[in-house]
Amino acid sequence: MIIIMESNSSHEQIENVVNTVKKLGFRPHISYGEEKTIIGVIGDERQLNESLFKSLPGVENVIPILKPYKLVSREFKKESTIINIDGVLIGNGHRVIIAGPCSVENEEQIIKSAKIAKKYGANLLRGGAYKPRTSPYSFQGLGIEGLKLLQKAKQITGLPIVTEVMETSEVEEVAEFADVLQIGTRNMQNYRLLKAVGKINKPVLLKRGMSATLQEFLMSAEYILSEGNYNVILCERGIRTFVDYTRNTLDLNVIPAVKKLSHLPIIVDPSHGTGKRDFVIPLSLAAIAAGADGIIVEMHPEPNKSISDADQTISPEQFAELMSKIKALENLIKSWG
Ligand code: PEP
Ligand code: MN
How many whole angstroms separate alpha carbon 270 and alpha carbon 103? Predict the structure, then answer.
């Protein structure tokens, strides 16, 4: 349930509603919009009655939210959320390009990647220091050393850092170096980890579980928002289907679906979505055309030498081509009015 306060409601009236919510055993979530203050009531709604709040002074309207996700829903917040990532905006028309290698491998590799990303117009640098690998014998990432190298790359290029956190106990450490904490597909339903990143004040990139429904995806985002962190960027990275020619099936349907159901920004990862280097450009363009708020791509100075995900990693030349095609596409989209 959300309670919409009148635009001229006083501080005391808002306090009174908040206290009533608490007294009834529910948790209030206050959102101070440009025009109106909205108070979300979190808890088991079946025990709530709209009339309890409708008669309180300063209350304009009470809307029950029937969907299981509340704070992420458009009913809770009509305007699309804009997230500020160390000066880079995403959402509501602000789109970002995130590029960089799958894993941070060494200093030369990540610095070169960052410089190429910057040169062709990426807004953020990606690179995994902690890697979730299917095989325990595969490279698991450089850990803290990788985080330090990412920091160095940021100092040189100014590009904010997106990097994955896999463990609840490592959230604080990763947050010291990262501008965006990535939650990988395998951890989308690691609820302890979601709660932990919900308690920090850094944006979170939440990747869709490889077999998660849209509702499950949004419920995972709800976990993060319900802990107080409203800066969540959703990421479609492909789902498991019967299709076996590509690594995954990139579900571009979720872009308009998320826009309809939620106010959160959504980006697309065509690298993991296809698993094939040559498919990254067409699927990136499709994602932008479908309304995505950005894309995240794996790019390496020498893609064939990538320690992880080489097959889907694009070259600097392909990245340059991608960026120029995105610009052309965006000009075309603008001309549609
Ligand atoms: C990654 O971004 O390198 C990664 C491991 O992604 P995902 O969790 O989507 O597989
Ligand atoms: Mn990867």
Answer: 16
